[in-house]
Specification:
By secondary structure, the protein is an alpha+beta fold. It has two domains: 2-119, MutM-like, N-terminal (N-terminal domain of MutM-like DNA repair proteins, Alpha-Beta Barrel); 124-260, Helicase, Ruva Protein, domain 3. 31% of the residues lie in helices and 22% in strands. It contains ten helices and eleven strands. A hairpin with a 3-residue loop joins β7 (84-89) and β8. The longest helix is centred in the last third of the chain and has 21 residues, at 186-206. The two termini are 33 Å apart.
């Protein structure tokens, strides 16, 4: 979602909106109010987008599983069977949200009371939190006694960490999913915070590739497909670990699949 926010900011951010259109009748009054106003800034909060206007109002969107942003020259629409839910456009470009159902407009001062925003955890990307800040957040009393395998899927902990990043963060930090922040020594805590920081930014830069860059280049040259070199462990059950040659295991944690190396992440 951070990449999408950057694209919206690049295409129409800082510009006067010549088009603001909502598919939902309850939001239609906002079309007239926001048309002609400047879209000042686009922020993320996990998988939510916050489109901030000059008058202090904010369009909140959450893609859920199916929403997708598309970009076109002003006035054009992509060839798709998806349903358009929100259209924002300047004189030159349009940003179009399809299939999403969670869209709202908030007045200035209402952000903190929105149900999702009020409970969202630290967004490493939008806040540009460094490793020290992440480490301090992890050991907060609200989180320190919860198992990491469950905690990492809680958007109230680290906003924006999805299922594949959960497995990858635990692998890179060498931690078993049943460990809690309270169980970690100083070195393990630092390693976990470094893995969170490194992998979230790497995923943004590489469009979802979390594996070591040098290894990725080597495997690409050897003819490996993207799905096979993309991750350290995620979706690689039965295949050997890149570090120790032991088979990757798959387990179910919090109702979602989690992958781990039994050697690199001992119980």
């Amino acid at each position: 979602m951070y990449r999408v926010a950057c694209r919206i900011q690049s295409d129409i951010g800082g510009q006067v909106m010549s088009e603001v259109w909502f598919a939902f009748d309850r939001l239609e009054p906002w079309s007239k109010r926001l048309t002609g106003r400047v879209l000042e800034r686009v922020d993320t909060l996990g998988k939510a987008l916050l489109l901030n206007f000059e008058d202090g109002s904010c369009i909140y969107t959450h893609n859920q599983l199916y929403g997708r942003w598309m970009f076109k020259p002003a006035g054009q629409r992509p060839d798709t069977n998806r349903q358009l839910r929100l259209a924002l456009g300047s004189e030159s470009r349009s940003a179009l949200l399809y299939s999403a159902s969670e869209i709202d407009v908030l007045e200035a001062g209402q952000l903190e009371t929105h149900p999702f925003i009020a409970r969202a955890g630290l967004d490493v990307l939008s806040s540009e939190a460094d490793v020290d800040r992440i480490a301090a957040h992890v050991v907060d009393e609200a989180y320190r006694r919860r198992q990491l395998g469950h905690l990492l899927l809680d958007q109230g902990f680290l906003a924006g960490v999805g299922n594949y990043l959960r497995s990858e963060i635990l692998f890179l930090s060498g931690l078993h999913w049943q460990l809690r922040p309270a169980d970690l020594d100083e070195g393990q805590l630092r390693g976990f915070a470094e893995a969170v920081h490194a992998l979230m930014w790497r995923s943004v830069r590489t469009e979802g590739i979390t594996n070591d860059r040098a290894r990725v280049v080597e495997l690409e040259r050897a003819g490996w497909k993207r799905r096979d070199y993309r991750h350290y462990v995620f979706n690689r059950d039965g295949q050997v670990c890149f570090e120790c040659d032991r088979p990757i295991e798959r387990v179910t944690v919090s109702g979602r699949r989690l992958y781990r190396c039994p050697v690199c992440q001992p119980g």
